[in-house]
Amino acid sequence: MAMRVYPYGTKHAPEMIADLSRRAYEFRIQVLQMVYAHQTGHLGGAFSSAEILTALYFHHLRVNPADPNWHDRDRLVFSKGHACAMLYTCLAQRGFFPVEWLMTFRELNSHLQGHPERQKTPGIEVPAGPLGHGLAIGAGMALAARLAKSKRRVYAILGDGEINAGVIWEGALVAAKFQLDNLKVILDYNGVQQTGTTTKVMPTEPIADKWRAFGWHVVEIHGHNVAEILDALDHADEIHGKPVIIVARTTKGKGVSFMENDHYWHGSPPNEKQFQAALGELQEAVARWQN
Amino acid sequence: MRTAFIETLFELAQRDERITLVVGDLGFGVVTRFMQELPKQFVNAGVAEQNMTGLAAGMALSGKIVFTYSIANFPVLRCFEQIRNDICYHNADVKIVAVGGGMAYGSLGVTHHATEDLAIMRALPNMTVVAPNDPIEARLATRAVVAHAGPCYLRLGRAGEAILHKPTVAFQLGKAIRAREGSTLTLIATGGLLQNALQVADILAHKGIQARVLSMHTVKPLDCAAVLAAAQETSAILTIEEHSVVGGLGGAVAELLMESDVPAVKFKRIGLKDAFSSTTGDQEYLRSVYGLDVAGILRTIEETLAI
């Protein structure tokens, strides 16, 4: 049974924001269980993107789970593919495939590969894994949508480690050249990549100035605040003549105190004790949003 | 071949608005008419081949038939990961066009020589690899790759190649063209070296040696039937390509023969040895240096067959 959707255009009432915020924590629990059960997967970047993906799939995106290839659907290019456990969870809860599939994550012959694949999983647009591919692909999709005079929008979710890749900046140039205002990038700016903080590995600040200099409209938000995410997505639809990037300032490992901002949790699975502790914290967060 | 390609593509694109040409800021003078008359079907992605290839994948996944266009090894090497993951893995309808295959950009140097491209592209699942031998084949190959849904690599020469076929020649992807009948030995050529193969056959004919000549314009899928027939009906097979002997046409034919039940046939790959084509010179000179001119091919045949 797919979860309730607040269709695109629904007013952002406090109850809706609380409901989506609670779900983001429920989805973190799901992801924690998937990664713990198989002792493989990426928690940190999945947790940092929870509210972003929840806001998109349960409100903003115009998609049809009954017809995943509907030609005028909005496209979501999940370029930081390693964090796909959260994407799978949202897709399943949105009705793209049975929720039962989730616990088969990375199992033999599973529909849910370790990195997303279009052929295996309904709702996935492009494969990802090697970082940096998504922006150019998204720009191509946005250009094709404009040529088709379609109102469909293209969302590309990038990680902040990912923007070390030069091809991201090639895509930034081309999207600005073609004034692709139907292309919206959401940068999951959690400040931590696999081997350390972005400040140490490859400094990217001043991030907003960089994108502005490339000709983009930049919105900066708190990336775990559902109300801010929803407003920013609406705002992005009102910008014309420029591509938009929403720099979502997030926390890697968000929701579990000992995982937050620690690059160890980029790709390491928890042991039983850690699992129980993490589960407890996330359950408390769910309870908080219920009240 | 370049002209045959762009003229054909322009004709097709006028009738089919799905056809889109994405260039990596190359083709000055060549793509001008396409750019001016079909602006909605033309994208200059800048000097950024990964971006060019990613854009093409995104457009193809949205219903377009997309050609990426650059020179020599540029549309293949820098963006190989995009070709593999974003195009081939989901069979996206992108055609990768390299103008100046082999050593066509002779004196521009080894960085501009596409001499491993056939091997690299051939290794990719879902990829069709086509290297026409003359402008007629280039024209027909352009039509054929548009009609074929899925990734293709079209490796063209540059300009001024001799016309070797009648315009009505039967052309089909994956099916060799028998350009000369013969029963003594078989020469199999790809990527612009058919002309030399035919001249070699003429010289051999004067010596009473009848060489069969095959134009193997499609390196993948290989025309296995034509190769196996040659192995059964003639006593030697020599492959000729302006490409490394590793993994290209010669590699493909060798793999087939080793796994076939056909009795041993004399076999030789004529191509660049496993070394860089670093001599300075134009294409004609480089072919002579590396044994791909008529004299060089004859020399190898004589050594191989002890004739």
Short description:
The complex is a heterodimer of chains A (291) and B (307). Chain A is α/β, with parallel strands linked by helices.
Number of helices of chain A: 10
* Integer-rounded radius of gyration of chain B: 19 Å
Largest interface: A-B, 32 and 25 residues
Strands ordered across the widest β-sheet of chain A: 1-2-3-7-6
Named at the architecture level, the CATH assignment of the largest domain in chain B is 3-Layer(aba) Sandwich
Oligomer: heterodimer
CATH topology of the largest domain in chain B: Rossmann fold
- In whole angstroms, the N-to-C terminal distance of chain A is 24 Å
Total strand segments of chain B: 12
Task: Provide the CATH superfamily of the largest domain in chain B.
Answer: Thiamin diphosphate (ThDP)-binding fold, Pyr/PP domains
CATH class value of the largest domain in chain B: Alpha Beta
Q: What's the shape of chain A?
A: globular
Unreliable residue runs of chain B: none
* Helix percentage range of chain A: 40-55%
CATH topology descriptor of chain A = Rossmann fold
Largest sheet of chain B: 7 strands, mixed
